[in-house]
Amino acid sequence: xxxxxxxxxxxxxxxxxxxxxxxxxxxxxxxxxxxxxxxxxxxxxxxxxxxxxxxxxxxxxxxxxxxxxxxxxxxxxxxxxxxxxxxxxxxxxxxxxxxxxxxxxxxxxxxxxxxxxxxxxxxxxxxxxxxxxxxxxxxxxxxxxxxxxxxxxxxxxxxxxxxxxxxxx
Length: 169
What we know:
- This protein is globular.
- It is mostly helical.
- The protein has one domain (38-160).
- The protein has helices at 16-23, 25-49, 53-68, 81-91, 93-110, 113-131, 134-150, 152-160.
- It is 73% helix and 0% strand.
């Protein structure tokens, strides 16, 4: 699409939010879809072939970690939100949709994508613990911790009141 490498432009992150800033809606949408499929496909295929929650949960974690630390890009990947969401959809459509609803509610209320992601995935382990197999909840505790770590600069900006708002330049 003749766009600059998002790892060298904007925030330096290859995720959909930065691609939106540097390339527009279509490239960002494709990035979001690709990152979500990175989580969805391996988890959904594993769930079909090996219906064993601990195995499925480990595949979700592997897909997520592979996105954060890809060997082909010097271990510099995205922040993992779309991949974690895709993996959640692979575990259960219901939990994936619930995560989207939570994300939308927080994002529409506070107009911060990063805050919406952090709240969504910090709540996800609790939902999984109550409604699903404990293996999923345990893995999503790790995913939430890594998401918080990958968003540490965003957290600082949120606390300082300087985090960018959705829909504002």
